[in-house]
Amino acid sequence: MVAVTAAASDTGPDAGVISKSVTPGVTAPSVGTAPSGDDVSDEVGTEAAGDVVDPSDATPENPRDAWLRPFESTSIWNVAIGSGADYVPAGFTSTPRQLLEESTLMKTSAEDPLREILRVGSWRERCASTERSGLDMHLPDGWVPPPVTENETPNNPGVFLQPDGRTIYNLNVLARCDEAGPLHAQWLDDEILISDIYGDGRLGAHGGSGLNQLGGAIRPGELSGESPISHALDLLVSAEHLYWGGTKESSYRWPAVTSDGYASASTYRGANPNVVMGSLVALPPDATAESLGVDTDVGHRLVEAFRDYGAYITDDSGWDATYLGVDAEAVGTFPWGDDERADMATIVVELQVIANNGPATVGGGGTPRQPPLPALIPPAETTVNNQSE
């Protein structure tokens, strides 16, 4: 994951610098420049990486794999758009770049050592801090996130499943300058840092919204296997589209719990009050790949997902680009070339806001377009740990 810097200050992760991922093969721009879409590689890996979403992973005792399709059936990520949905135009204009925001999604083992979590230093000098969190977690030695370079300041989001099979750590701005040392990271709130993969999955480490990164991430096999995507997607859009409304509270809506720390009238410049951090956007119920002129296999799958489940706006993309949240292990398991990006651009301009999405009417209420996912059954005699054992 590489990044685009788009502001004047880089004094820390909460400062005005905006950093977003760019698909592999793009050379990261310097401040004030942007990579050309022609620089994005069309090459596709020939071998799938990581776990692949497959119904065969389910068992009669637990018909859904919690790691590959996490959270409760009633989670915001797992409820399909309903027949009661109130669609209003989002008004997105075409953006020249349709890219991928990669997250590290990792299952850890009891054999992995416990490593301390430290707060990041500054946005660029991430390992400079020695501020202790009082927490540690299982983390394999030898693993390091993508580094910060002169032109690249990646967000480096990550979700780490602990050996108990249910405790997850939700982190962002990951850095590890010693491959056998502590992990430096940022998180919004101690109560959000640690959560339960068998819980509602609403909150996590997305800095612009407080929403979770695991629930909406595209996993290996979801854009290349036989099964359709069965969850809402994770969408990052430019702050140029986001509505400010005069106050912090008017710049986000449920299920988000915040907007960007730099949100203001000068940064959130959208004119549509329905398009705020946390908005659920979807294709109209009668949309098909054919009616939209979407041609690729990946585009067909995305049309179905955006129509049936929609996507939550989780963060500011930082520049004139739209991003899909993906598991880093999924990158290379599906094509993402000019044709796929053109299909994504077509989808984005057709998106509508589900205006009545809310706690009592997730997805707009009514009969969902897809049946609920099977219930999850937590491992026997386990609870979420505030500290790994």
Structural features, described:
The protein is mostly beta strands and 389 residues long. It has one domain. It has helices spanning 190-193, 289-292, 297-308, 338-349; strands at residues 87-89, 98-107, 114-119, 132-138, 158-161, 167-175, 183-186, 194-196, 233-237, 280-282, 311-316, 322-327, 352-354. Strands 1, 2, 3, 4, 5, 6, 7, 8, 9, 10, 11, 12 and 13 form a 13-stranded mixed sheet that branches. Helix 3 (297-308) packs parallel to helix 4 (338-349). The radius of gyration is 19 Å and the shape is globular. The model is unreliable at 1-50 and 52-57 (pLDDT under 50).
Which key phrases capture this entry?
4 helices; disordered N terminus; globular; 18% strand; mainly beta; 13-stranded mixed β-sheet; 389 residues; single chain
Report the total helices: 4
Structural domains: how many:
1
Strand pairing plus helix content: what structural class? mainly beta
Radius of gyration: 19 Å
End-to-end Cα distance, whole Å, is 31 Å
Low-confidence stretches: 1-50, 52-57
Q: What is the H-and-E element order?
A: EEEEEEEHEEEHHEEHE
Total strands: 13
| Backbone shape | globular
| Largest sheet data | 13 strands, mixed
Strand content: 15-25%
Query: Fraction of residues in helices?
Result: under 10%
Average per-residue pLDDT, rounded, comes to 84
